[in-house]
Amino acid sequence: MDSYQSLSAKVYNFDKPVGKSFGDLEYYQSRLTNKASAILEPAVGTGRIMIPLLQQGYNIQGFDLSNEMLGYCEENLKSAQLPTNIMQQASFTNFQYNETFDAIIIPSGTFLLMTDYVEIKQALQKFHSALNSNGKLIFDLFFQNDFQLGRTNIKIFTLSDSEKITLTMTEAEIDYANQAATYIHRYEHWKANQLKETELETFRLKWLGIEEIQLLLKEAGFIDITISADYQYKKSITNGTEIFTVEAIKS
Ligand SMILES: C[S@@+](CC[C@H](N)C(=O)[O-])C[C@H]1O[C@@H](n2cnc3c(N)ncnc32)[C@H](O)[C@@H]1O
Predict the structure, then answer these.
(1) 196 CA distance to ligand 1 centroid (A)?
(2) CATH architecture of the domain covering 6-143+208-250
(3) Is the model's pTM score more than 0.70?
(4) pLDDT score for 237
(5) C-alpha 5 – ligand 1 centre gap (Å)
(6) How far apart are CA 82 and CA 77, in angstroms?
(7) 33-73 confidence digits (pLDDT tens)
(8) Is ligand 1 within 6 A of the CB of residue 48?
């Protein structure tokens, strides 16, 4: 895995701390009405969403592929005085649990980190098997409709008076045949104006059409698929839609 390593995870935890919402936290809460139901969050990351849900009494656990992200998740769980045995290291296609779940949630476009169909199909089958009958799969998607080859953006994260991380993001490649955009992220960690560490992240994101995701979900055994734009239940997608949420039920 060449993303979500040391500096990337540090920046994620700093820039998107536990409880920071893009509208997703409130929306997922509104779609998960039974707090006692068992919920799984694949790619749980630093616990940004899982920890506030735990604090509100939800029965949720998660896994993630990145040890660095899980390290922050563990730290954040401890700071919130919550048990840490509810997270584990696993991927979308190899996770194993002895129980099944009433809901599986994947907020914030993380689903699009799966860039090939074999992985997507395997993951959807795993999600289907991990759900109880009538269980819900809920995840966010977005289009890559603002891609400009070669465009570069720089962000500065000021960690303290003497410490900062700069992030240079370059839109590096667009692959229409496979519906994927590649971004190169260069992280530089500065202490007292001295460069201490650099990290390169290749970030590949897929996009999926509405019909396409519905066909994939049906093929994996899901029914009653709904699509909701901008975190408003069943709001239609337009060209201006930034993010949309797919919900499907295990038949
Ligand atoms: C954008 S972060 C989202 C974290 C968290 N769900 C949130 O909303 O804040 C994406 C996460 O996906 C994880 N990830 C990427 N590929 C994965 C895979 N194949 N299996 C499991 N986790 C994966 C990364 O390690 C990272 O923590």
Answers:
(1) 26
(2) 3-Layer(aba) Sandwich (3.40)
(3) yes
(4) 96
(5) 11
(6) 5
(7) 999 999 999 999 999 999 999 999 999 999 999 999 999 99
(8) yes
